[in-house]
Structures are given as C-alpha cells and as structure tokens.
Design goal:
The protein is mainly α. It has helices at residues 2-28, 44-66, 72-75, 81-85, 90-95, 107-112, 118-126, 153-156, 181-185, 192-198, 202-212, 221-224, 259-270, 289-293, 310-319, 332-343, 367-370, 375-378, 410-420, 427-439; strands at residues 100-101, 133-136, 147-150, 157-159, 167-168, 170-172, 216-217, 237-238, 276-278, 298-300, 364-365, 385-386. Helix content is 41%, strand content 7%.
C-alpha cells in the first residue's frame, strides 16, 4: 500500500511540475503559438547567437541594398548603360519605375531638387539614393560617373511614396511592379554583347526587351532563348516578392531551388556578377541551349564577389516578413466568412497551408493540377509550378496574379479554381473568399 501511495504522489508531483512549466510557457507564448514570443539570452552561447544573428542581419541588409557583385563590369563597362543614364532626368527615371530613397537625400536637397535636370540623376546616384543602382565614381567624390551596377534591391525593393510618387522610404522585399527593366537596359549604347548572347540581331534584341513592360523580367531568356509564348505574348514573368519566404521550401514560380540557390543563380547569371555557380542541369542543351553553349552550368570567375555574401543575404531575406494589409483595405466580416470557405469548401488550404500559405515540404504541382498551360513550367528543370505563398498578397496586386499576370483580379483567380475544381461556389462565397485573400 505504501509503495502504491508513493508512486501515486510521484505521479501527482510530476504532473504538477509539468503543468506549472506549461503554464509558464503558455503565458510567455504568442497567441495561437506554442513558441515563446521572446527568450532572453540565458548564457554566453545564447548571447553569442544573438550577436551573430544581429550582425548577419545588418550585413545582409547592406548586401541586399548595396552589393553589386561587380555587375558594373557588364552593365557599365560592357553595355555602357551609365553613358545613357547621365542624360536621363529624374522625372524620366521615375517614369520607368526607378525609385528614390528619401532617407538617403538631405531634406534641403530633396526639397529643391530639379527633376528635369540630368545632373540631379547623377547627384542622386552619388548619394546612393536611386534604389538598386550603384554608381561607380572611381572613388572621387567630385568625379564623373564611370560605370554602373545593380543590386538585389533593383527589382525587389520599392518605396512608400511618402514624399512623392516614386520617392519615399525603402520597402525592402516588395516587388517593384513599376520597374521597366527592358526599357532601362534598352537604353544601353552597346547592346551588341547582349544580342550576341541571345544569338539574334540588334533589332530583335531591342524588340524582346521592349516586350517585357513594367514589373516583368525573363530570367530564363538567356538559358533557353524563348522570348515569347506560343500565343505571341512575352515570356517574361512578374517580379516576385522577396518577403515572406521564411519556412518556404522553394523560391520562384517554378521552384528552381531554395532562396539561397536563387540568390546565387541571379547574382551570377542574371546580374552578371563575378562569382561561382554550379548547376549541372543547365548543361542540358536540349532544354537550355544558350546556358549549355555559354557554360553557365559551371561558372567560375577568377575573382568571386558573390559567394561570401550569400549567407548574410539569405538571413536578411528570411527576416523580411510579409507586410500586413492596411486597415480599410478589406471587409473584416467577409474575410471571416472567407476564411472558413478557404479552409473547407474551396479546398485552398489543401496546398496553401496556414500559416505558411504554401505546402510545407515539397511545394510543387503539375500544370494539370492547377489547370493551366505548361509553358513556364517546361522552362525550368522541375516541370512544375510552386504553390505561391499568399501572405502579403495585397502588396503585389499591380500587374495581375499568377506568374505571368494572366488573371487581372483575385476574383479571376477564384473563378478559375471554381471551374477547374468544380467547387460550385456561390457569388457571395467567392466575394468572401476574395476578402480573406486580401486580409492575409
């Protein structure tokens, strides 16, 4: 009897300790989460991890905004883009989607800047105020613009327009859907090297660049040479966000690889930086004839200005949370109803699993599964489309939805799945589902 009583009291005490620990854990946890909202550094190892994380964050932010990876050797030294830029007024630059970081410009300068004077463009570059463009002045504060490179922020940052349209505080990770990359590159005085790489004449190269339009870029063009879809539309796709990627398995619309893979891919093959990149899939001449011809499967420059920055860049990008929708941008009551539809009748949560709103794990699906053509999927090694993370969807409405903007509204996306999956949603259910998507 005594032995049994002892076992009973041990069990009660153990349960009490466990319950007490759960209570402390629960009180420190964020609502709806079993992870503490804040854990103080308990020892030297924790403190060092905190310090290392902060250092990586700061270095990664600098890389994202400023590192050109020596891309000026292509855009400046080869294409001579800087020679065209010095003739462009800020007003024209803003019209093609370039943005100005107001925090980089002294207030008195910003207030009196002449937006119709090309000299102002050069002055803004000297201040590192043109988001994503890096001017090379040869180390001379008063010297002329000698070359020009780009950083990650060129495509994946915008501004909040707090001063004027196109001028304001930086919004890192937001896709610049105003940026007309093709028009900007098309200004280059020497496009012949680009035409040679594509294996086309100069007029054709200019036509291809002009076909992209605002907010689009064709990362696969220099791999497979497919500038247009079978229906004659541009093969370029919408610039994706670089926020909300923490916990997401694969980056890009067709899942080429992880975030850090894509950073290495873009820095080496798209930004034309100097570094090292290896992907034997690109040696497949049948699928990627231009990549195979130019040895892009195994690129090794004598000087590597990319690889040592990838870890910090990755860390910073994963810290960029998707922006929350502003008050008044959706109907709260409709969003509540739409959330239930999202999870049940519409079956959206089957793939867009909350709170990631993509598939945890291997987040790829065949074109047949999502009911669209396979053109873009076949341009990637996967042959599939990634389940796009939906957080911050409201901040990337410009240009439309899906990889190529084929649906101009969220209602169009909902209608597509209603038909494809035979959901039989009512008009009210569709409207509520749209409100929920706007609220994520």
């Amino acid at each position: 009897m005594k032995i049994r009583q002892r076992k009973l009291w041990i069990g009660v005490a153990t349960f009490g300790l466990a319950f007490g620990a759960w209570g402390v854990w629960g009180r420190s946890a964020s609502p709806g989460s079993d992870v503490p909202a804040r854990l103080q550094a308990a020892n030297a190892i924790d403190a060092q991890a905190d310090a290392d994380a902060q250092a990586m964050l700061e270095r990664g932010r600098w890389v994202f905004r400023n590192a050109s990876f020596r891309s000026q050797t292509f855009f400046g030294d080869t294409l001579k883009l800087h020679e065209a830029v010095v003739t462009v007024t800020p007003r024209t630059a803003l019209a093609v989607g370039l943005k100005v970081d107001s925090d980089a410009v002294p207030p008195e300068v910003l207030a009196t800047a002449d937006l119709d004077d090309p000299a102002t463009t050069v002055a803004l570059l000297r201040l590192n105020a043109v988001v994503g463009l890096r001017g090379d002045f040869g180390g001379d504060p008063q010297g002329g613009l000698r070359s020009l490179g780009i950083s990650c922020a060129f495509c994946h940052s915008t501004v909040d327009d707090s001063v004027a349209p196109g001028i304001g505080h930086r919004l890192d990770g937001w896709p610049n859907r105003d940026l007309n990359v093709g028009a900007i590159v098309g200004l280059s005085p020497n496009l012949q090297p680009l035409a040679d790489r594509l294996g086309v004449d100069l007029p054709t190269a200019r036509t291809v660049l002009a076909s992209w339009g605002p907010g689009k870029f064709d990362a696969e063009l220099f791999l497979d040479g497919k500038a247009f879809r079978p229906d004659g539309k541009t093969a370029a796709v919408l610039i994706p966000p670089a926020y909300g990627l923490a916990g997401v398995n694969l980056a890009t619309y067709t899942g080429w690889g992880s975030v850090t893979y894509w950073n290495a891919f873009v820095a080496n093959l798209e930004m034309n930086g100097k570094g090292t990149f290896f992907d034997p899939r690109l040696a497949n001449a049948a699928r990627f004839p231009l990549a195979a011809a130019h040895g892009l499967d195994d690129k090794r420059d004598p000087v590597d200005a990319i690889t040592d920055k990838l870890a910090d860049l990755h860390f910073y990008q994963l810290a960029l949370a998707a922006p929350k929708p502003p008050a008044g941008s959706f109907d709260p009551a409709g969003a509540v109803r739409g959330k239930a539809i999202f999870a049940a009748k519409a079956r959206c949560a089957t793939c867009h699993v909350p709170p990631l709103y993509t598939d945890p794990g291997w987040n790829l699906h065949t074109p047949e599964e999502i009911g669209i053509d396979d053109f873009q999927a076949r341009r990637s090694p996967t042959g599939r489309y990634r389940t796009t993370p939906l957080k911050g969807l409201w901040a990337r409405t410009k240009g439309g939805y899906y990889h190529d903007g084929r649906f101009s509204t969220l209602g169009g996306v909902v209608d597509h799945y209603d038909r494809h999956l035979a959901l039989a949603l009512s008009s009210q259910e569709k409207a509520d589902l749209v409100e929920f998507l706007k609220s994520i």
